[in-house]
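Quick one:
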Amino acid sequence: MFMSRMLSHKALAALFNLDGAFNAVSMVLLPGTSESETLKRLDAILARYGGIGAHGRNDQVSHGFIDAELQQLAALARVMPH
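Output:
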């Protein structure tokens, strides 16, 4: 944190030879696309760059929180009078 406040993003990336590097990739699959096959291919592409394993939406913590909230809201909608 300290260095990032002193140097611009571009300068910091150049200092650590990380120009053009990224930390995350998000994808949207077309209908009918195999998630497991896409994850396997993505892992193969990113392995040489240090990729640590692609995962689907169901394995994301944020998805779990949102899904649980929606389930609670659905339960309340069934129980609460209109």
